[in-house]
Amino acid sequence: MNEASEKGEQPKKTEPREEAFQKLFNWCSQLTAESSEEGEYLWPASMKKLLERLKLTKGALVGVLGLRGVGKSEAMRTLGFELSKIQDDVIYFKWAGGDLVDVVKTWDLFFDKRDSYLAERIEDMASNDPRFRDKLYKISETREGDDVGRLVYNLAARNWKHIETDDIKNRLDIFDHLIPAHVKKEVEREAAMDLLKDIKTILIDLPDYPKRDPRRIAADIAQVQKIWQSALEDEHNPNIVLFIQAETFATEDHFFFGKLLIYRIEPFKPEELIQHFKEQFGPDELITDDALSYVVKLSRGIFRRFKRFLGVCLEEYLVSGDRSKPIDREFVGNALTVDELFKEMDLELSELFKTEEMKENAVKIIRMLIKVREVQQRQLARVLNMSEGSVSKILIKLEDHGYCTKERQAIPEGGSRIIVRSTL
């Protein structure tokens, strides 16, 4: 019994505002598909369409493309969960590389299937290989009189009426040293391919590959292709869905990619993120609408980034000591420093610009734009000590990816100037 109870006092209740803060802070901390709660998923329009297709079709070969961090893993997990409600045989997993058997080995059903195949192979060897039978006789002599001795003897003598395949399967440890390594490998592959025949939908989340790693990409795609070819050869038509980093798909010219029906996970529109937030938390007194809109804008449509940025703001709010006022736009601007923003931008900029020099110059331009908000392109080049041509090339890519806008304005003296504005 605590002190408050001994004195007859009621336990202290959590204030509604504090409760709301804890709920929001916990939500912002769940950045991965694995840590998020079931049902708390913001469905992209393309994934709604894909879910309906997979419910109705078989034999579909699909590629789901998305930029790094856009939520491919979460989409795969949620699709798999929804499909498993109506289909018994759905598997979904993150590809860890290696051989196909290495992947299938992670499934619970694999080992039972493999052991059944090994037991059948041992029966075949006892039936057709005299040298194998000689080895069995020697084992039976050392175990005469017990169940193992009788099982091994009956195998060596081919007394099939006294042998059940399950008896062998349950005592595979006795035969392990007698089975050649190449036979074990063959059996594992057969079991893996046979297991795939029973699957109706296979969802595979490919890694976000390091830049310029064509060998690893080619090796993984070759293994995925084996799954597909095996399904075709056995006239088995599972749906196979690959979740692929959009940057990988754009740079790797693999013929297998050309066979995929493509669905794209696009960044969310600002109003979609705001609506989802309001549905989760209702009118929130912790953050103003203006501040929320600013966080959404800085997130550039990436749901995970939106949650992370909100989390950063809440951490700063927590240590500020003053929770009497809500988080406003000024607070967000102070909490989400330029360095904090660049933690998220670094990988994206690495994909946009081929050289470190171009990336570094892009960073300088973005920093400048965040600081001044609006500037002439010519002035930007002069201040950063870069040629206007170099600045123009970088700005084209930055504008295409939503970092800035450009506007050509006529000037009274004649001619025109280009005004560059930050969108961050």
Mean pLDDT: 84
Would you state the CATH class of the largest domain? Alpha Beta
What is the H/E string? HHHEHEHHHHHHHEHEHEHHHHHHEHHEE
Measured by DSSP, the beta-strand proportion falls in 5-15%
Helix vs. strand class: alpha/beta
Low-confidence residue ranges: none
Describe the sheet with the most strands. Answer: 5 strands, parallel
Task: Output the CATH topology of the largest domain.
Answer: Rossmann fold
First-residue to last-residue Cα separation = 54 Å
Across the major sheet, the strand order is: 2-3-4-1-5
Radius of gyration: 31 Å
General description of the model:
This protein is of the alpha/beta class. The chain has four domains: 15-32 and 268-336, Orthogonal Bundle (Helicase, Ruva Protein, domain 3); 45-89 and 199-264, Rossmann fold, CATH 3.40.50; 108-189; 362-422, Orthogonal Bundle (Arc Repressor Mutant, subunit A). 58% of the residues lie in helices and 10% in strands. It has a five-stranded parallel β-sheet. Strands 6-8-7 form a three-stranded antiparallel β-sheet. A hairpin with a 5-residue loop joins strand 7 (404-410) and strand 8. Helix 3 (45-56) runs parallel beside helix 4, helix 6 crosses helix 7 and helix 7 (130-142) packs antiparallel against helix 8 (147-157).
What is the secondary structure topology, with strand pairs?
Elements: H1 3-6, H2 16-29, H3 45-56, E1 61-66, H4 72-84, E2 90-94, H5 100-104, H6 108-128, H7 130-142, H8 147-157, H9 165-169, H10 172-175, H11 181-197, E3 201-205, H12 214-233, E4 239-245, H13 246-251, E5 261-264, H14 270-281, H15 289-299, H16 303-320, H17 329-335, H18 338-352, H19 356-372, E6 374-376, H20 377-383, H21 388-400, E7 404-410, E8 416-422
Parallel strand pairs: 1-4, 1-5, 2-3, 3-4
Antiparallel strand pairs: 6-8, 7-8
Helix pairs in contact: 2-16, 3-4, 6-7, 6-11, 7-8, 15-16, 15-17, 18-19, 19-21, 20-21
